[in-house]
Write a structure and sequence with these properties.
disordered C terminus; Arc Repressor Mutant, subunit A; five-stranded mixed beta sheet; alpha/beta; D-Maltodextrin-Binding Protein, domain 2; 3 domains; about 300 residues; about 40% helix; 10 helices; elongated
């Protein structure tokens, strides 16, 4: 038995509550993971999991082993990193779940990373809303808002704001709202990215302002919302990085400048702190660096648009 490998499987089963999920992570079979756990139980002479048809949970002995296993794996990871730091450039594919707006900002920067590491490949899985990292076979994910999955490692890497925009043709026909409360008299194009999607939140001179908006069209993809608003069919609330070129060109007009939208946290997610493949760590470090650089540049430029990302 490869004790380190078996302990890695054991900790991931304990963290995810699923043999199947761990098998997918590892690219192996459920029976192989089950066999590793059985070998551990035989090796230590204890039962590690309570198993029912609906769920699994740690026994007291399993809980004790988990604490020791995490320590041992941390030491093993540190040793591997120290001994492998001068090894060849990382190779292989890294799949990254990423929102539409973040992909528009980060995708043009990826050729720099790929030129530095010729054996590396990166795939962006672009979608707004939550990505199931196991189901979608993701190594990393960028996601905004609250994170419900407690089994993931979550790093808050920045804050981003959104801006209310509309096409000149819409404003000519319907007029320009003077305050958030006036949005109730307008057609709004809602980005359906959560249960409160139709409640738009701003910060005004007297504090936070929330308004419930509506219209005949909504979409769970910000590109669709962007296209409908740019075509003159309503007001949209979108990440400024997504609409900055349209605002500069005049295709969209920024609204409610005295009422900035409340900022939303951007998180980087990955399944575990331990055992990140070198290729995954390289991509993660690059994404973090590019987000921070963007924030610093935007702060120096000081344009009328809020910084795309703030780290």
């Amino acid at each position: 038995m490869d004790l380190i490998s078996a302990l890695r499987s054991f900790t991931r089963v304990a963290e995810t509550g699923s043999f199947t999920a761990v098998a997918r992570e590892q690219g192996s079979s459920q029976s192989a993971v089950t066999r590793q756990i059985a070998q551990l139980e035989e090796h230590f002479g204890v039962r590690l999991f309570h198993r029912t048809t609906r769920r699994i949970s740690l026994t007291d002995d399993g809980d004790s082993l988990l604490a020791h296993a995490r320590q041992l794996l941390d030491y093993a990871e540190s040793m591997e990193a120290e001994l492998g730091r001068h090894s060849a450039s990382p190779t292989g594919l890294v799949r990254v779940g990423i929102p539409v707006a973040a992909s528009l900002f980060l995708a043009p920067r990826m050729p720099t990373l790929l030129a530095e590491h010729p054996g590396l490949a990166v795939e962006f899985v672009v979608r707004d809303g939550f990505s199931d990292m196991i189901e979608d076979r993701l190594d990393l994910a960028l996601q905004s808002g609250e994170i419900a999955d407690s089994s993931l490692v979550v790093r808050t890497v920045g804050m981003f704001g959104r801006v209310a925009v509309a096409a000149p043709s819409y404003l000519e026909a319907r007029g320009m709202p003077a305050s958030p409360s006036a949005l109730t008299d307008h057609v709004c194009v809602v980005h359906d990215n959560g249960p409160d999607a139709a409640t738009w939140r701003f910060t005004g001179p007297d504090g936070p302002v929330s308004v419930r908006v509506g219209g005949p069209f909504m979409a769970n993809n910000s590109q669709a919302v962007h296209a409908v608003s740019r075509a003159g069919h309503g007001i949209a609330l979108l990440p400024e990085v997504q609409v900055i070129d349209d605002i500069r060109s005049g295709r969209l007009i920024r609204l409610l400048s005295d009422y900035p939208s409340q900022q939303v946290a951007l998180h980087l997610l990955y399944p575990t702190r331990r055992n990140l493949a070198p290729r995954t760590r390289v991509v993660m470090d690059f994404l973090l660096r590019e987000i921070r650089i963007s924030a610093e540049v935007a702060a120096r430029v000081g344009e009328g648009i809020v910084d795309p990302f703030w780290a």
